[in-house]
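CORE FACILITY INTAKE
Project code: CF-77B
Contact: R.S. (postdoc)
Sample description: multi-component assembly, two entities in total
Requested service: structural model of the whole complex
Turnaround: standard
Below are the sequence entries exactly as provided by the requester. Do not edit them.
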Amino acid sequence: MHNFEFVKPSSVADAVAALANGEAQPLSGGQTLIPSMKARLNAPEVLVSLTGIAEMQGVSRDGGALEIGAATPHATVAREAASHFPGLAGLAGQIGDPAVRARGTIGGSIANNDPSACYPAAALGTGATIVTDRREIAADDFFQGMFTTALDEGELITKVRFPIPGASAYAKFLQPASRFALTGVFVAKYASGVRVAVTGASEDGVFRWAEAEAALSSNFDAEAVAGLSVPANGMISDLHGTSEYRAHLVRVMTQRAVRAAS
Amino acid sequence: MPKDDGIGASVKRREDTRFLTGNGRYTDDINLRGQTYVHFLRSDVAHGKINGIDTSAAEAMPGVLKIFTATDFESAGGIPCGWQVTDRHGQPMQEPKHPILAEGKVRHVGDPIAAVVAETYEQARDAAEAIDLDIEELDPVVDMVKALQDGAPKVHDDLTSNLCYDWGFVEENKDAVNEAFGKAAHVVSLELTNNRLVANPMEPRVAVGDYDPWGDTHTLYTTSQNPHVIRLLMGAFVLSIPEHKLRVVAPDVGGGFGSKIYHYAEEAFCTYAAKIIKRPVKWTSSRSEAFISDAHGRDHKTKIELALDAEHNFMAIRTETYANMGAYLSTFAPSIPTWLHGTLMAGNYKTPLIYVNVKAVFTNTVPVDAYRGAGRPEATFQIERLVDKAARELGVDPVELRRKNFIKPEEFPYQTPVAVVYDTGNYHATMDKMLELADYANFESRRAESARNGKLRGFGIAHYIEACGIAPSNLVGQLGARAGLYESASVRVNATGSISVYTGSHSHGQGHETTFAQVVADMIGVDANSIEIHHGDTSNTPMGMGTYGSRSLAVGGSAIVKATNKVIDKAKKIAAHLLEAAPEDIELKDGKFSVAGTDKSVDWSGVTLAAYVPHNYPLEDLEPGLEETAFYDPSNFTYPSGAYGCEIELDPETGKIDILRFIAADDFGNIVNPMIVEGQVHGGLAQGIGQALLENCVYDENGQLLSGSYMDYAMPRSDDVRGFTVDHSCVTPCTHNPLGVKGCGEAGAIGSPPAVVNAAIDALHRAGHTHVKHIDMPLTPSRVWAAMNG
């Protein structure tokens, strides 16, 4: 990798200031950025570490919501969210392997918006609020297609606020090599209705499956979506699965998530 | 009573203490004073004309010592190929030059164009980015069939086409085979692909070149399975360095699986550059670089047909295979789809007539060569898939169809119609053992249980044969090998009785340091801990051919036995002198020489001390010392065989296959260390199951590698490979080597892919999806689901 400068601020304000300065990039768990730097596909001049900022760490309950600091590793979420929001803890515990979960963070995952990442499904599937250094963004407005988000240049996610659902689960079908989601579905049941978010499948990244949400809102049963399907057109087709297969998995994984949540 | 550290004992591997504690000494652990680093600038296009390489800006970068291109190697030879195949018409194969650095053209993604030597690795990489390349992209050929069409772009402009050879075997049988098909009551055919694989040893390749100007001697430290072969090929054919001025050392090596047999350009580069730079030059492959520079494996496309008579006896087999050679011929590439594949097409069966046609094709992809099993997995996969398909089409039990056509135990030695003679085997016994261990009789109740849970359960069978213990030199010489395939050993007994063994074979995971010591300990009757096994350094081991083709115990072990017998013969003479008896009356038992029928004896160490302190010694008849060297050249291949059973559950909703149990009943002949054998089979099964379900090396039509990292190349993980039952109680000892051993290193990778695929087809058929005749490997969930719903 190319040489770079490394700064490790202890406050969000200092981090934002450091990021405003030239060719700086934020570094959280580094699970995507570091490999791309090692492959010389990315060469920031300054890395601003987010792991020394206390206000970006930890899992806390605030009434009906669970707030997770953006620099909280997946393993911490898997452990500390378990009693409050088992669906989210279950998702965090399925990301990567133990080494990835020890380093990778929720903020990094959501900011990167990899089309096969797990966390975007939870954020969109719960209607979470993405809190940044300057504003709050609804998940529905945040994810804007593969690797694209509503974040402005230099804007930092500081925490993610999840409304805790009455029931929820994440069903993930593994891409056999990377063990990212070949297709993953997060289902969350609220008094106001059911939300269904799908990752890994679409060329547009994470998306909500409105038909399934409507069907499950009136009958929260796996059979309620048995006759539904998403079109294969627009689904990812690659070495690991055709677009038809992914479209099929959207329904299967939705049913499995509903069964797991029931 | 057998010794607890002798032949047959499950002695723990002595090498594991250093490996498991991180104290192995691998090539990358070698750092020489004044060492420099090389980074290879590699082609990112599959096919292109090099119009210019401007290194001026890069040369001015910090730390850069020299940038090499093809012009620096005008006096060097190309990387040689070790095997010449003769085609159907008696013509030699087309053999293109394989330069150290690309000359005029690049021919695959990863082809090295320039080499930057700098003070640090990062400086070398920085400078490589500053090299200005002018490469005119040319249309690549990736698909083998298209590569042979008229007008296809040529990988090598100086060859007549992309056809390396068109091989027929046995060519004289061709008409008789066709005639048999004309008379057949049933013909079963199958088209299949044997998927391209990347070996992925845990340790990537590394080379360190060193040059001593005062002695004009070169040393190469390299990750090799056969350092003597590298010394021979590189010294004699590439760099013109005589053997006595060239030392090649392969220290601890972290797995090879074939990919570290070959002589690679990076080895020649580091050796040569060290002399030019006047400092050691080191190259360490990154994992990404390994995907585009290590030789790949398999990559065959085949049509196979089986003719049967009305009683379901096999009459004839006919095949047509396209075998990918990649852009250049790797060291043993031409021999894999021919002599290591065609000669195994009889399988375990009495098929009187066989004709194998293989077209080897150049494409703009990484060279393809041996990978664990090398040709034999390709043969086994075809035969065992086809026999299974035949049973299904004829409506007979796949076990019974196999049993009916098996070579019977009393029919050995058995001359196959494809040149080789199987010395021993008992395929009925291994099949019975496997079915017993699998509790095959109760499969139906397990299947019903799975069905109640919404899963499809299937049982797949395969019975393999392989040819190991490679190989009789006079035979392979006739077949085109440009080397002998004997093995060597020196047994040096030290004055106090401890023993240093120097073997020409190489251990890179096989546990030779343990196994070979067990053999010598058993023969002499001393403690195995008093024996040290040395390998991997051409300066102290006798010329040997290295480790591949499950040859080390059968051939290398036989050389050790031979040298140890020479030592024992001499020691008996010394003992006879000390005991004042005739040498023929001396018996060696449990490390003690005694005179038959008396209580007179002398210990092993008494004899060894006399050999080196020859005060009381028959100096007029015997030289002092106790050290012997032997070379062993086998008279035949060995023929391990076995029955494999795979029980799976298939999720009909997703197409995902879970292996519940895998039973391997192998006949490896006699066994020295059962625990190591079990470990070898486990490793082979993991790689065979990896090929069947997960691994796939895929190029797109532009010759870009789509599966160039672990994000897309699926290696088996521990939870993918479980439920193994390994048995080696069926033993028909090899008849022609002194230990009666056959070899076990590749079996798992050979027998398992067809067992897995047969299990998947079985599960689908039992559930009524009878339209699914075949699914190409890897059986990814997407492919299985598509086949079910196709």
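Facility notes:
- The first strand of chain B starts at residue 36 and ends at 42.
- The radius of gyration of chain B is 27 Å.
Invoice: internal transfer
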